[in-house]
What we know:
Low-confidence stretches: 1-40
Protein name: MucB/RseB-like sigma(E) regulatory protein
GO molecular function, one term: antisigma factor binding
Number of strands: 19
Order of helices and strands: HHEEEEEEHEEEEEHEEEEEEEHE
Oligomer: single chain
Organism: Sodalis ligni
Domain MucB/RseB N-terminal: 50-216
Domain MucB/RseB C-terminal: 240-334
Amino acid sequence: MKQFWCAVCLMTSGLLYATNAPAEATASVPSGAPASAPAGAPAPITAPGVLLQQMSQASKSLSYEFAYVSVSKQGVDSLRFRHALFEKRPFAQLLQMDGPRLEILQRGDEISYFEPGLEPFTLSGDHIVDSLPSIVYADFGRLAQFYDFIPVGRTRVSDRLCDVVRIVARDSTRFGYVVWIDSETKLPLRVDLLDRDGEALEQFRVISFVVDPQVMDMMQGLDKVNLPPLLAVPASEKLQFDWNTNWLPAGTAEVSRSRRTLPGINVPIEARLYSDGLFSFAVNINQATAADSSAERYIRTGRRTVYTDIRNNTEITVVGELPPATAKRIADSVVFKAQP
């Protein structure tokens, strides 16, 4: 059973990598979302929302270097992140400062991974997913339909004056963020991911940083580096499933779907991947096996929840960035079409 759950988590983590684009770009808002505003329609942006947009723009356009720590339930990582624009193309480097050397490079839309013991590879993308928190790259115009941006005041981080903004889902079904934004450069200097009780699940905290055109000079050599080959992504199929979800958090849309059999487990799994543009999760359906004795169970590790329920010999698993109560509500809402 543990083998199966680990396989489901691995499959879903691969799916979640593809959710960088806004959710409305590939699917319409499903039945669980409110119908008061069309998916992707612009929403009025408050002053904190404008500040968040400025943060996102600064993170994508300035030449800067961060030395920061990433704190989670799994431990503390020390990292360095560099970013610059060269001939209007983003160049970036993420380097793990302690332990085995892990390096990720970005040149335009190419993201290359270098890790000891693994063959280097390149994927397509518009930013390094593992660098800055995902909130930095969010579409705040769209999120304003479903989230509140609350000004908290000003304080100091890394000896810099920062504006503080909270991001809270209006329906209280998702996690929230608190963001500390440098008042001068508009770069994010601290980001806390909070559960619904206000407990910190993850923290991004800049220890020192510099904004300087010389960062571009340091990154310019990346233009002539031979990067690993680009991994081919299988073409998406137009799949039809005999099940659907009757409830989803407001603003959530289906991003993709797949049907596959995982290595070592002879169980076909159907999966739908969903995102609201900030948090992502997948719903997986497969036939229950003889070893599946427990009807309901869940595991939560930091931001990620794996919730499983068995109904009529069918296993329903929700995996992703959700509180357990929300994952359970989604699983309970799954309905199956009557067989002819």
